[in-house]
Amino acid sequence: MTSRIHPTAILEDGVVLGPGTSVWDSVHIRHSTTIGEECIVGEKTHISYSVVIGNRVKINAFVYICTGVTIEDGVMISAGTIFTNDRFPRATSPELDRLRSSDPDEHTLTTLIRCGTTIGAGSIIGPGLTVGPFAMVGMGSVVTKSVPPFHLVVGNPARSIGCVCRCGQPVLKFVPGERVATEHAACPVCGLEYAVRENGTVVEMSTIPHLAHQFA
Predict the structure, then answer these.
(1) Are 121 and 137 spatial neighbours (Cβ–Cβ below 8 Å)?
(2) CB atoms closer than 10 angstroms to residue 130
(3) Stretches in the chain below the pLDDT threshold 50
(4) Which has the closest alpha carbon to 78: 52, 54, 58?
(5) Angle at 51 between CA 96 and CA 46, to 5 degrees
(6) Angle at CA of residue 120, ends 113 and 55, nearest 5°
(7) Could you give the dihedral angle defined by the CA atoms of residues 175, 180, 184 and 185, in that order, rounded to the nearest 10 degrees?
(8) Cα(23)–Cα(6) distance, integer angstroms
(9) Which residues pair with residue 82 across a beta bridge?
(10) Contact 68, 110 (CB under 8 A)
(11) How far is CA 140 from CA 36, 116, 120, 154, in A?
(12) 125-159: pLDDT as tens digits
């Protein structure tokens, strides 16, 4: 199974694509980036240098992924998503006499998108964050702090309003300002079961052995 690259795409030196990965029109992937197997990179997306992307990741059109981002397996990055890596960006030195380098420095922060996560269309992901496994970021959200596993966050700034199943369906709604704890919450679609601790941690309670897990 070979990778497929549209003739208008630009792949710089040192880019590695896994088998079965498709790169569509007008994509630009900077040097030293690694993309795993069976991924899709949608049209007019820009991926900066030294980005690491896992297997079976869907990246839609017009996405910007900057240096310092790592994306694990099975992630969905919807159209128009923007990643950032500097909390205090400036174009020049304080004296305005020279451009700041685009190379990573002490201001460059890393971001980790864990397995199975969905980032909704038009979202902005702040720097130095972790979005936990199977979390879901609602469309148009501005994520300014890390997101726990299985949590559904929406808004600007993004706030948790519930938890979602591995299949993406809402499992439980959270009441703003209150802690929700339950020993049993089943997905209404696929039936997988979860528990929510008082601190908001979501634990898989499925009877399928390889799914039962508490993510850190």
Answers:
(1) no
(2) 17
(3) none
(4) 58
(5) 70
(6) 40
(7) 20
(8) 6
(9) 64, 124
(10) yes
(11) 27, 19, 7, 8
(12) 999 999 999 999 999 999 999 999 999 999 999 99
How many alpha carbons lie under 13 Å from residue 174 in its C-beta half-sphere? 24
Name the strands in the sheet holding 111-113, side by side, starting at the edge strand that comes first in the sequence.
16-17, 34-35, 52-53, 69-71, 111-113, 130-131
Token pair belonging to 175 = 């009441």
Residue with tokens 């020049």: 92
Please report how many Cα atoms fall inside a 13 Å half-sphere around the Cα of residue 130, on the Cβ side.
Answer: 10
Token look-up 């898989």 returns 204
Name the token pair of 169.
């369906």
Rounded Cα–Cα distance for residues 33 and 53 (Å)? 8
Q: Which amino acid is at 170?
A: P
